[in-house]
Amino acid sequence: MIDFGFDKILVIGTVALIVIGPEKLPRVARTVGTLMGKAQRYVADVKAEVNRSIELEELKKMKESVETAARDVQAAARDVESSLQATATDLERSWGGMGEGAAALEAPLSYPEYRHPKKKWRIKQGATPGWYKARNGIRTKALSGAARVARYRPHKFN
User: Fold this and answer.
1) What residues contact residue 135 under an 8 Å CB cut-off, 6+ apart?
2) Which of 5, 29, 58, 61 is buried deepest, with most CB atoms within 10 A?
3) Rounded Cα distance, 156 and 158, in Å
4) Domain boundaries, the chain
5) What phi, psi does 155 have (nearest 5°)?
6) Could you tell me which residue, 41 or 120, shows the higher pLDDT?
7) Which InterPro entries does its entry note (predicted)?
């Protein structure tokens, strides 16, 4: 944009005050301000549109490069797969002459199912033994208020 310093703006303001007059100057300044704002918004919109088109072109180029790379990877994967199949067939042919030893190697290995060493490992266990708590009447389970009322309510026998 045009570079206006403070002294240039002061000169333009004094000339406008003399030419336009003090009565019309605020209205003209307001109009010029709105026109300048519209011009700045228009320039910003044009810049944004140009930037978007440039980014769109870059994204298209990037998409093409990614697609070519993906095609290359697929071709390499096909080559590796064919070489693995060839190797597997060679191994099967070479192992085919071993006889009964090959059948023993083909059996899958089985592992026992994992079990946690503690039977109830999620339950918190304190240092005080359970038999001591039971003998002395220490509560081992927390009860809600409603459950406590239901447990200790006297039963009516009819």
Assistant:
1) none
2) 29
3) 6
4) 6-95
5) -85, 140
6) 41
7) TatA/B/E, TatB
Whether the CB-CB separation of 150 and 143 falls below 8 Å is answered with no
Residue 7 Ramachandran class (φ > 0 left, ψ -120 to 50 alpha, else beta):
alpha
Which of 42, 28, 40 lies closest to 12 in space, CA to CA? Answer: 28
Asked whether residue 103 carries a pLDDT value surpassing 60, the answer given is no
The pLDDT of residue 94 is: 84
Summarize the confidence of residues 84-103 as an average pLDDT.
76
DSSP string, the chain: -----HHHHHHHHHHHHHHH-TTTHHHHHHHHHHHHHHHHHHHHHHHHHHHHHHHHHHHHHHHHHHHHHHHHHHHHHHHHHHHHHHHHHHHHHHHHTTTHHHHHHHSPP--PPP--SSTTTTS---SS-HHHHHHHT---S---HHHHHHHHSPPP--
